[in-house]
Structures
1.
Amino acid sequence: RPGAFAEQPGAGADVRDISAGISISIVKNALFKVIRLKNAAELGNRIVVQGGTFHNGTSAVTVSPFVIDNCETTKADYIFYTATVNGTGGAGSADDYPIVHLSWADAIVYCNLRSVSEGLTPCYSYGSYGTDPADWPGSWGTLAFGDLNPVQCDWSATGYRLPTEAEWEFAARAGNLSQGYTYSGSNSVDEVAWYSANSGAVGHPVGFKAPNELGLFDLSGNAIEWCWDFYAAYPSGPQIHPTGPPTGLFNKVCRGGAYSSSAADCASAQRSWWSNVVDETDYTVGFRVCRKPQ
């Protein structure tokens, strides 16, 4: 079933050079099939990201160890844990497409429901209403109810949550296994991302492109991904497990490229935020989740 994952340490892709004496087109087709078959055995895993330090272009950032899904949350995952069909799976809307057209609030609810389903302590609470989304005010995630400040995260909880912006970027850069690539897993965007030049203007099933050095898929393309933080300029000094500004309005960070993005917007260092209203959604924005190691 969706979410029945096995955790494994990060590992790079193993692709051998088989091109000698073979035409380029045959090699590309063969490698694509090999990678997809290899990827199929790896999809649905969680990856342990060991803690470490990276530079975000402004300052040194240190993050603690965390566990993150190696794929974007799919339509099947979302429906399994929420029993709703909010959002879509993109063009074709098959079960293995990333779930998109969801608000940040929808992703928060998913995290808590999945946590409870797997016997973990939910991370998110809403004001004084506790951690069960069923007990939250019916309009909490809509513009009519106001901003997102009442949503709080218990960082000591064992449940699922959205990655912080720093965690997301550290994972996209492949953590301590990073080779310094521009995109998540390569200096060639076509190898690791569905984006405007190769997607046909539609989303694709998760895991079709090569993973990064940790074994994480689609961090540079396919769907943009929600993060926990409110958007703000980076602080100038060193940061230790930053979680973003304590308050904001609706400007939540989202990272990575989408099937409609330019190559520049797929770079691991590229920042973005969405939106001007609390319940705004877009056909290019999805998410993946993380949690504390057990």
2.
Amino acid sequence: PITALFGHSNGKVYGATTGKQSHLFTYDFMTNKVYPLGLLPDTEGVHHTIVEGKGGIIFVGGGLNEIELLSLSADMPHGRRAIENQLWADIKSKYNGYEGGHLFAYDPSEGDSDVYMEDAEAKVKDLGVAVPGNSIYCMTIDTVKETIYGISYPDAEFFSYDINGKKFKRYGKWMEMIAYPGPERSWRGIPRGIVCSEDGKVYSSGDNGLIFCFDPELQKIRATSMRVPGEYWETQNYNAFPVVEQLIAMPDSSIVGSSSDGFIFRAFPAEEKLKVYGKPRVERRVRAMTQGNDGR
């Protein structure tokens, strides 16, 4: 299936699939056709990890097939949080011996005009592994400082890539709590959206559903007082919270987002205030969201 789509400044839509092998492709509105752009090397999936840099260069973060059904242990231990702990062990076992997700660079001006056979590799430049033993799960870009930021799965490691310096840097875990809020009960609750604001700060959700912020000047991650809207259940043994699905930086410095519980909200980082617009549908998760040319 298609698990990543991105609208490019050249008017085309670029995307990638997830499965046994990830395929890069583009949709050209001028011809109303989809064109294959080749296979991404050593990559099963691409999830929320396509961004555009200067000169129209596309950066793609790869990883394993995160939508594949997990092989769960048949024998479950007993005890407090035993099932959750075993689920975490089952998730981690999938990454035993895995090198880690690669970051790729693709130049549409060089690769779009070529014809790709079924088994042809995409004309990408391999920039290296972002986080060893992890997939790249979500990405954003600071186009001014030419820096890519991302969060990995399943360990939620926060990293950056200096495009000009050609270097990765890891800052530790974006979040510490391990929870399974769903709707996919075998997935760890890690944000699927991350955004860089005009001032260069990076925002996404973290522990207990709070909006977290990374300040590149201080090189630190901190929790804000803003909380992602969701269906929080205050019970003794409940240990879960919603995560963000998409985040969009708006012209007025606010951030519009959606949550895994299906809520739409607007965050105002300067005041640390958050406005909830509600749920457009009863179902959980907002599968996709973008900003229109009219600003909405």
3.
Amino acid sequence: PLRAHPGAKVALWPSRWTPESLAQRIADLGGEGSVEVARQLDAVPQNDNSLAFPESYILRALEVGNDVHVQPDWPVDQIPEGAIIIGGVDIAASEKATADESAIVVLLLFPKGSLKYGYPPGYYQILWIEAGRWATPETHRRVHDVAHRFGCVMYVEDNGVQRFLRQFPAPPTPANEEEPRRPAVVLPFQTGANKLSPTQGVASLGYDMSAGRVAIPNVGGAVDEQVGHLLGELRMFAPGEHYGDRLMALWIAREGGRKHSAYAGGSVDVMVVGGDDGAEDRDELGERSTRRAG
């Protein structure tokens, strides 16, 4: 491989590949997360017959999410009818430079689908991704900040850090905000053998993609940097091996959504705005996403 790991900005041979020449090569091969970058720079075999997320599945999710932008926030009073917003958090055990990253993924989920928008049951759109090697206080601040910006419940992988997040006081409201922030609702998510379940495990996200239930935001194939990293994790995924941090957060968010969804028999009480008929038609919703990104 040319890089130590997918997403690295520096080559293993910096005397031959400067950061600038490496960035240009990545762009020439289709951008971070593309199949050719995985093949040529990261030495990741790409055989659709053996992949949990074949390229056809990924392209389907990109097609569904074409002309949709990532969203830095989403006011609660503007959630489309029949939808909920849910957050998933995968927390790294260490903040060392060689450690995994912590990741946060936020989804807009239509549990029962939408006749108005043409969405199938269980449809979800990726609204936001952020990731990094954060110290625990910074992870705590980010989880509460994302929960405030989207007004959503956050499902966090249940470990020592997650318990710390639940017990530690909410961060203070920023000085430039008049209204005090409400503490985030942080719920535990147990991970274990469920990761390998063929119907509810991480690989089952591929079924969602192939069925047109997943919208990965992009504009003509061009993606946000964090979305590009997620695409790379999808292409590198192998059951039983290390799971990408953004991919894990995406799975936790989807499973959290299932717990909050009538179609999955969830028992957690949340507000689902309206029913199948949306306040806007599908084109208007797409235009709204585009406007908000600007």
4.
Amino acid sequence: VLKPEYFHQFHCIAGACPDSCCKEWAVDVDDTAAAFYRSLTGPLGERLRQVLKDTEGGTVMTIEDGRCPMWREDGLCRIQAELGHAALCQVCQDFPRLQHDYGNFVEYGLELSCPEAARLILTQSHKMLVEEVSGGDAPEYDEETMTILLDSRKAVMAFLDSTSLPANQALAVLLLYAHEVQGWIDGGEPAVLDADEQLTLARNYAVQGDWCRFLDFFRDLEILTPQWRNRLTCPEGNCHWHGGYLALAKYFIERYWLQAVADYDLVGRAKFLISACLLICHLGGNFAETAQLYS
């Protein structure tokens, strides 16, 4: 089991949270929780039976006025307040925690979309803790490719931890290194992270980008919240490449780098994470807030 050091530091700040995970989406309720909620007596049970809805995909908690009907005015969940944390459905117990199960090892992390999780992700150490546990399954992935991805991820995380380069230059090195690792995955020579060489190549390849076209791409995607729409519509600009972007890049690497074992496309994931950093920087505003809205 692998997890970043900050994983166990997370605790929901409940009513003090500047946002809420209880709005703008219908929460999936697992079968065990749905049956329990429908068995409850009293006002809470009656209210739950009113708002639970069975769909082809399972049971959901219908939203009312853009929010979960269990979300109280004080920012707390009525179910948790009256019955305790263990009574929450599995989705609400887990969020913002996430896991990637690769069979013979599992990685845990946090979702950037939660403000408190975002604070930890962007300010705390990304050192990975390793814990040996029993169980697990035989891996179904390409073991040679996974070895390459694990080794290259370790190299790029060490580089981001130690580099004195400005964040934008470090990201350029990351992109060029990802291209070399892609060649390694595709049967070429092992990749070497040489920041000087890769930064020189990046400077040779660099051309002036079209910011308006770049921004229009994200505006054309499905937009889930009005806050994100407003940020895309009215960017504040003044991009400043501070060290927080290295933490953001490390988060994306932790979360997505190894997933290239599924389709052998590491470069696509590298482009995604660098595009995310570019967008967040150029939109401006509060860094952590913009990163959270992006996610």
